[in-house]
Design a protein that fits this description.
Number of helices: 5
Shape: globular
Order of helices and strands: HEEEHHHH
CATH topology: Sufe protein. Chain: A
Largest sheet: 3 strands, antiparallel
Structural class: alpha+beta
Helix content: 25-40%
Strand content: 15-25%
Radius of gyration: 14 Å
Strand order of the largest sheet: 1-2-3
Distance between the termini: 31 Å
CATH architecture: Alpha-Beta Complex
Length: 145
């Protein structure tokens, strides 16, 4: 059973769409369930001034994408990097256990978009405590993005 917040974010997603000329773009997917999330960031002076998403997937995937954008919009990069799937779940008043992976994808999409921004701007990820990003696309968190 989904919470009212999950249903609201699924029915009325916030920040859905694309940002032309986005400063950072992150795309992640889960081949097991077929969900694909793409996050677009506009960053001004280290602050996420705008964020949009496009998600192909189930209702929980759309709801977690929507909530993740709400949680990072207006935040500093270092604060957005602290976003966890648990924070997304809590903000949505819970998710069924079989849908937890959707919140993980939302977290990973945000972090992949931030990493893309850092790479495009020649900013050393270590400035934000991100290590071991060689060859990283941000798709699995194995590189601690």
């Amino acid at each position: 059973m989904y919470s009212e917040k999950v249903m609201d974010h699924f029915s009325n997603p916030r920040n859905m769409g694309e940002i032309p000329n986005a400063d950072g773009i992150g795309e992640v997917g889960n081949a097991k369930c077929g969900d694909i999330m793409k996050m677009y960031l506009k960053i001004d002076n280290g602050i996420i001034s705008d964020v949009k998403f496009k998600t192909f997937g189930c209702g929980a995937a759309i709801a977690t994408s929507s909530m993740a954008t709400e949680l990072i919009k207006g935040k500093k990069i270092e604060d957005a990097l602290k976003l966890t799937n648990k924070a997304v779940i809590e903000a949505l008043d819970g998710l069924p256990a079989v849908k937890i992976h959707c919140s993980v994808l939302a977290e990973e999409a945000v972090k992949a978009a931030i990493l893309d921004y850092l790479k495009k701007n020649n900013i050393d990820p270590m400035v934000y405590g991100i290590e071991n990003t060689e060859g990283c696309t941000g798709c699995c968190s194995a590189c601690e993005v």
